[in-house]
Design brief:
The protein is of the alpha/beta class. A seven-stranded mixed beta sheet has the order 3-2-1-4-5-7-6, with helices on both faces. Strand 1, helix 2 and strand 2 form a beta-alpha-beta unit. Helix 1 crosses helix 2, helix 8 crosses helix 9 and helix 12 packs parallel to helix 13. The chain starts with 16 loop residues before the first helix and ends in a 5-residue tail after the last strand.
Length: 326
């Protein structure tokens, strides 16, 4: 959720930038004999990447993004770094393929800033925000096929309810799904405003008065489904951990509980001693492969959430590789 700078984007600063640098720079500063490699798996407008490149003059960036608009903007922002920058149109679970094609064996530091980016939210025509009237699109990569309109107009009622319940953690998933089915029988649902209004009228009045816009959970659920976010993240994080050498570090910024749950599960498993409990001493091959660099999930400061409201829901986790796999 990189907000960019006024010259390129909306004027928001990258989320938890100082803490990200503090955690990742030791992993690149320890490298000698070659240029250290920093992977930004969700490049966005390139704010975190720019700060890392400025902080370490020998650093090489590999930046991935599925959004071609984000890649174009970040390419302009990072042009001054020349051949230190390699940008790739790819989803982050495609990391092994990208590294293989580039001939890169390891990345020393990796960042994943998950969720929807500021440009996607701010550009009404992308259809991510319930605050604008726009086509129901929600594709992070506009070269892909499935749109939110196709989901709401084509999915069976039970599947719609499941998506809203699981991905949006929506208590009234069944009511909303039934309302969508009734509405689409009259005319296809094709705009964010119509969908947001429909959700609002489907939820009990007492609930509508608290907790912000009642459409938020539905829009989150549809965005996750359209972009396959949770399945992709469940593949991408293990791939990134495999790409780190001993001493390499990863930082993850998550914006809702489902992403953070996956991150916590994977990192906790990698940081565990798996020696069978009946054995009297730990076995070397069962020692933790990673150590956690944060105590639970770290939150942004109050000062940051005041100046950058989109940082309000962020949860940061980080880990460092201790040993190679055996």
């Amino acid at each position: 959720m990189d907000g960019g700078d006024p010259a390129i984007g909306s004027g928001h600063v990258p989320v938890m930038l100082d803490r990200v640098r503090e955690l990742l720079l030791p992993a690149v500063e320890r490298v000698s004999g070659r240029a250290p490699v920093y992977l930004d798996g969700t490049l966005g407008l390139g704010g975190h990447a720019e700060a890392m490149l400025d902080a370490h003059p020998g650093l090489r960036l590999i930046g991935l993004d599925r959004d071609t608009t984000a890649l174009e903007r970040s390419a302009r922002r990072l042009a001054r770094f020349g051949d230190r920058v390699t940008l790739e149109h790819a989803v982050y679970d495609e990391l092994p393929r990208v590294l293989g094609r580039l001939g890169v064996a390891h990345v020393d530091a990796a960042l994943f800033d998950l969720g929807v980016s500021s440009p996607q939210l701010d550009e009404a025509e992308r259809g991510f925000a319930y605050s604008y009237d726009a086509p129901l699109d929600m594709r992070m990569d506009r070269t892909q096929g499935l749109t939110a309109a196709e989901v709401v107009n084509g999915y069976p009622p039970a599947e719609l309810a499941r998506i809203l319940r699981e991905y949006g953690e929506e208590r009234f998933a069944q009511r909303i799904a039934s309302a969508i089915v009734r509405e689409r029988e009259r005319a296809p649902l094709d705009s964010t405003r119509r969908l947001a209004d429909l959700v609002r009228t489907s939820i009990p009045a007492a609930t509508r008065r608290t907790g912000g816009n009642p459409a938020k959970r539905t829009f989150q659920a549809l965005r996750i489904e359209v972009n396959g976010e949770l399945d992709i993240w469940g593949r991408a994080l293990p791939a990134a951990l495999d790409a780190l050498p001993v001493g390499g570090r990863v930082v993850v910024l998550s914006y809702h509980s489902l992403e953070d749950r996956i991150t916590k599960r994977i990192l906790t498993a990698q940081a565990a001693d798996t020696t069978p409990p009946e054995l009297p001493v730990p076995l070397p091959e069962h020692q933790p492969r990673f150590r956690l660099l944060t105590r639970g999930a770290e939150l942004p400061t109050e000062a940051e959430t005041t100046t950058n409201p989109r940082a309000g829901s962020v949860r940061l986790r980080a880990a460092e590789r201790l040993r190679e796999a055996t």
